[in-house]
Amino acid sequence: MLMNRIETAAVNSPARRALQRFYEVPALMKLAGGPLAPGAWAVEIGCGSGFGTRMILDHFGAAKVDALDLDAAMVAKARRRLADRPGRVRLEVGDATDLKAAFGAEDGTYDAAFDFAIIHHIPDWRSAVAEIARVLKPGGVFVFDEVTAHALARPTYRRLFDHPEHDRFTAREFLAELPRHGLAVTGAFTRISGDYLLGTARKRAANRG
Length: 209
Ligand SMILES: C[S@@+](CC[C@H](N)C(=O)[O-])C[C@H]1O[C@@H](n2cnc3c(N)ncnc32)[C@H](O)[C@@H]1O
What we know:
By secondary structure, this protein is of the alpha/beta class. It has 9 helices and 7 strands, in the order H-H-E-H-E-H-E-H-E-H-E-H-H-H-E-E. This is Class I SAM-dependent methyltransferase.
């Protein structure tokens, strides 16, 4: 589900960028146990204007990133932002629930997958989790920063932004979904009374489900 104009402005505001750059990314990096291994290939779902993609390259140390977003205008912005990284970023308009269509991603392709506040925009959010689990290599890391049902129920969110109305997840429900897809949670915490969930999970070896 696309963002409305107010959310687009809020997400791309300097305040949000500062929060992401100076708080969320360091916190997620700590949960992930540090930068990615040299040569890591990452996928980012819902990349928006590509700010997070830059963080994945510059701070998490990915060698290459495949990044996609449903919104063609956001992908156009991301292409401009990342024009100085030829050969290291593939950007596509596409759906997070079908990474094969966007990138031809086979099972077990990526070392890392990033979700910077996008899965709560997907009506069938469990399909997005399943798709991330499918494309991660065994041992690959899923890094997530999510907005929960608790936040979406707040008057500001309800009045200003558009989000799927049904099957929203709490932090507990999101964390409970991951092992169903072979993703073992390795660290997570919530902030602002459960409004936001930050965490990491690792894809288990195939024979351990
Ligand atoms: C809250 S924004 C976050 C954008 C970016 N990750 C950031 O942190 O700035 C959510 C993004 O998810 C995208 N999106 C929503 N549903 C999607 C889907 N099914 N597949 C891919 N992107 C999607 C929206 O277009 C929007 O850019």
